[in-house]
Amino acid sequence: MDDVILELKDITKAYSGIVALKKANLKLHRGAVNVLVGENGAGKSTMMRIIAGVERPTLGEIFLDGERIELSSPADAVRHGIGIVFQELNLFGNLSVAENIFATREITRGLRGIDHKAQVEKANEFLNRLEAGISAETLAEDLPIGQQQLVEIARAVSLDTRILIMDEPTSALSAAEVDVLFRVIADLKTRGVAIVYISHRLEELMRIGDYITVLKDGEITGHALVKDIDTRWIVRSMIGSDAKDFAKPVEHEPGEEVFRTEDICLPRAQGGYAVDHVSLGVRRGEILGIYGLMGAGRSELFECIMGRHAHSSGKVFVEGEELKGRDTTRRIREGLALIPEDRQREGLVQSMSIADNLSMASLGQFVRAGFHIDLKREKNAILEAIRSLSIKARNPEFDVTSMSGGNQQKVVIGKALMTGPKVLLMDEPSRGIDVGAKADVFRTMRRLAGEGLAILFSTSDLEEVMALSDRIAVMSNGRLVTVVDRRDATEEMIVSASAEGHKTRRMHA
Distance between CA atoms of 22 and 143, rounded to whole angstroms? Predict the structure, then answer.
């Protein structure tokens, strides 16, 4: 027990009669990685928010170094040496990286105010330790999501915490950035820091974890030393059975080409192209997976297709007709729909209900007599979307923020599908989703393809692109490196193409 720094005893948390945690017990060991796993909605984030002082438990006690403590606010947690890196980013976009790292604890020069130079120097030290390749003077909103994640981690490391909670810290990081993060975690362990690590990437947990705790439906279903278990034990403890087979395809032959891009280009402000003359096509009923590492240009390509960059060039065709309009609303009317990578900022309206988020992009379908919304038709369509996507929504009128991350992702997908698209673009559709929710989403993709929908999805997960795609396109440095039939693809081929794209000629699919 000497190495237990924090203990939760019989912690229960209820929201409006819904029990998110039920008599949960957890011990965190100092100088170790304490892994916490469970499906979306299992109670992981609730437990972490309690430790971080964001939420207060309904019942139960918290002990730090054997002394009972109250964590009434995040400031309380910080005073006790507890820091957290949330899965959903919490940066101020209009402030610099340095200002974000030192927000609420600015370095000052007495009456002369904030010492910006000192903050930049200190922030750069933390960023260099993470090998982030980021200047502390850069505006946070100008960074891609992966680098924003590194800024969050740098801020947490800068707090000199005794307990550091990391909620899906690698979800937007490249393999090289993950290696750097793991080296930082190893360094923190040697300093006696207790790491709480939440991730859906089971191989990652096996690689880095020391202790593991499994949550299911708000209750703890397993404790173990990581060295004593394997990934099958984790999955069985999480979902009550072995992993669901999301790779099993629905057998059907793709039809004619329904979507095509020609020479899509997006210039960078500093020169060169974020998207460099990309031409590709997708057939009816086909899933085309785009694989690439961070900075490959996958998200930027989707944004160009949806008309979000007025200065981009190139042509987009749906069913042989060139799309002329450059605004997103018109592109949706013309049969395109996008599931964005960042569901919180770009996929959902946080202040609205589950139902309103689902129908907001398709309200035109329910208008009658020019200005009245047929509420009954809208409600039926919402309930059908919830049913078909297996969304866990006890009450569609609840705020969308009351849902787990995986169910929020399903709401974003449902919103897109309710517009009746001919082509569905999905940017990292499984980011932050557990094995159960991932299986649901992937089965939905296969079902939709079987019904004739053309699907173009991007991922940096090699297993995912190999399992789901009918054809695989590889992007690197903004260019389309190669397009290959899934039956002819190997993991070595895909990884090699993604790493050496700058040496390869442009391809057309």
Answer: 39
Q: Which residues, 6 or more positions from 459, have their beta carbon under 8 angstroms from its beta carbon?
A: 289, 290, 291, 428, 429, 430, 465
Whole-structure pTM value: 0.58
Among 420, 439, 468, give the residue marking a domain's end: 420
- Contacts of residues 483-487 at CB distance under 8 Å and 24 or more positions apart, as own/partner, are 483/280, 483/507, 483/508, 483/509
Distance between CA 230 and CA 249 in Å, rounded? 27
Q: Say whether both 428 and 408 belong to one domain.
A: no
Cβ density class 174-202: b for 16+ within 10 Å, e for less: beebbebbeebbeebbeeebbbbbbbbbb
Domain of 470 in residue numbering reads as 256-335+421-509
> How many structural domains comprise the chain?
3
- Let me know if residue 251 belongs to a domain: no
Q: Which of 420, 440, 465 is the last residue of a domain?
A: 420
Pair type for strands 257-267 and 423-427: unpaired
Residue 268 near residue 465, CB atoms below 8 Å: no
| pLDDT tens readout for residues 237-280 | 876 654 444 444 556 678 899 999 999 999 987 678 889 999 99
Dig out the tokens for 32 from the structure.
């170790």
Same domain, 433 and 494: yes
Rounded CA gap, 497 and 491, in Å?
Answer: 10
